[in-house]
Amino acid sequence: MTITARLDVGRNASPFLFGEEAAAVAEVLESGQYGHTDVTEEFERRIAAFLGVRDAVAVMSGTAALHTALLAAKVGPGHEVVVPSMTFCATVQAILAVGATPVFVDVDPATLCVTDQLVMDAVTDRTRAVMPVLFGGRAIDLSRIRPELAARDIATMEDAAHAFGSRNGARRVGATGDLTCFSFGPIKNLTCGQGGVVIPRGHAEAATIRRMRMLGVVQSQAERAQTTRYCVEGFGLRYQMSGINAAIGLAQLPHFEKTAATRRGLWRAYRRALASLDGVTLVDVDPDRSVPHLCQVRTPHRDKVHARMKARGIGVGVHYPPNHLQPAFAEWRRDLPATEQVGRELLTLPFHQHLAEADIDQVVTALGQALKTVGAASCARS
Ligand SMILES: *Cc1c(COP(=O)(O)O)cnc(C)c1O
Question: Which of 96, 107, 140, 183 to mutate to test the pocket of ligand 1 (most atoms within 8 A of CB)?
Fold first, then answer.
């Protein structure tokens, strides 16, 4: 069987362009305005309208979104932040950036998301924020614990880097009232090349974050052009989103319904194909409500299956090696049995919008063969 090139893009994911992005970028380049511009502000308005929220603040990356959200919620040294170990390392680095202490929690192995119980068991008097990760795009319902967390002055910040477009009941992720952070990096469901957005809790917090992403300077570009002074009103970093990046996201956004349909279709095609395969468990992203970001299976023979699939030219990956076992985060290590188990078993299958449903049969056939050669029980697919 010859494997299609679409299945080997060097990794399991690949950016997808709709065709209008290059012209949109060229227009910004020709304008001579490369910083935070009206294009960035237009992107913020369109994202807010899409999500059904009043404010969206654009920043240069998802990591910058998480960092500014923590700063805006005044999380700092001496504070604990409850975070799943099963996430991209960016979530943890953002917590360290403000000098707070990450308190790693386990996840439900079926969803790779935290549960109410896991979060509440980790909360102490020093907890200042909880940072659930909407893994694979899965929207999680925090409504039962949100009031108690709020009563204890604990901010809820959703790391929704995987979950742009997913729904929580009738509302989109981002519209639930929590601080929410999105990433628009190269391989996310919507891309700006690089970029992120923070959904603040009201106008005052939006203004704080707008100031922080601009080195603490309040003046607009237009105002600055007119006067001899500018005023640094507080702490801030160079975290703005360039109009060059915003233009890419603006060109992508009108096509998002296609993105959602394609990703749901591909994920369901995987689910159908995998149903006939023994020896693997699919991680459920709840595609009826989410816009799936990853397609992952669990197998006890992960390392061998990974090597065999790679050798056949199939771009598989691992999301993620648990953070509490990373050398950089050793100080905050604790026992997280479910995370350690899934950390050995997770395998990410090729999942991006260049794929056709026929490609998925190739992946699942190759997976069945790999499982057979490593001695795992599997069905007659060959
Ligand atoms: C991508 C990602 C981030 C960071 O976003 P960047 O735009 O890459 O900085 C944070 N958390 C998770 C779960 C991610 O997947």
Answer: 183
